[in-house]
Amino acid sequence: MPLARPARAAVLLAAGSLLLTGCGDSKATTTKAAVTLDNCGHEVRVEAAPQHAVSLNQGTTEILLSLGLADRLAGTATWTDPVMKGLAKANAKVPRIAENNPSFERVLDADPDFVAASFVSTLGKGGVATREQFEKLGVPTYVSPSDCAGKDNSGGGDGARAKALDIDTVYGEVRDLATVFGVKERGDKLVASLQRRMAKATRGIDASDVTLLYWFANSESPYMAGCCGAPGIITRSLGAKNVFDDTHEEWPQINWETVAERDPDVLVIGDLTRKSQTAESAAKKIAFLESNPVTRNMEAVKHKRYVLLSGQAMNPTIRTVEGVEKVADGLREFGLVR
């Protein structure tokens, strides 16, 4: 098994270095030779633009592919959905080292010079490995600021947010990774494209009378979105209301009786291809909703007001913009907004 590359000697930052501040918890200081990030409470030093990176979650993978960096990826892991439209050809060039969390050893077999992840838990105890384990081998790591900005991941489950997540934090992640890989202009271009799509999707829409519920996975003890993660970005951008905006947990598990009592106007349903929970696909979710005596009389179920989203659109990623577009289109189709 090849070991990860040892850390190179640190280089001094030039006096005229440029300070680049991403949104969320990341700040980047860069020169031609090196980048230093303050990322989720960790100082990350990248001596040169990575050439052999591993991305441990689909969210970070799709950012890197969107930046045109397939040839600098040594491996990807943890997929909930098919790759984003337009990226299949690039993605096919990159080894998929695992469908879910790979072992630490499997990642090291890819000989990474940089490791990125979407979630604190992926690079924490019980995940692939801790950030410290990689850093001891000279491999810098990066975690999406969306999973740490205003968020407490210390308890069980998927954490809780003291502060609502903003789409600017996702844009900040794009800029961070573009800076690390030395493709800043590509990052700016990608962010500008996402901003235009957000503006187009939300232009003139007022969903203030519409209630939504977001169901990610599991029919036995379902994971429903709380107020303040990626579904919160979607909800607020449209002016709607999440029926579970009274909880700050990211994905609390809520019983069906409570769901039926809240009786939302629209059900936003995760359409996942992974197979780690019950009712992953939208088809299985809808079959459950329409057959279960507790849920089949809900207004959204009776009127089949379902909006189907990828798992990535329901997590804080660049595909959250896709989530805004699809929910906005659904509300218009259902005649709930103009």
TrEMBL record:
PROSITE patterns named in the record: FE_B12_PBP, PROKAR_LIPOPROTEIN
Residue ranges of every copy of the Fe/B12 periplasmic-binding domain listed in the record: 52-338
Protein name stated in the entry: Periplasmic binding protein
Domain of life of the organism encoding this protein: Bacteria
Keywords assigned: Signal
Lineage of the species this protein comes from: Bacteria, Bacillati, Actinomycetota, Actinomycetes, Kitasatosporales
Matches recorded under Pfam families: Peripla_BP_2
Signal sequence, start to end: 1-28
Keyword Transmembrane assigned: no
Family classification: Belongs to the bacterial solute-binding protein 8 family.
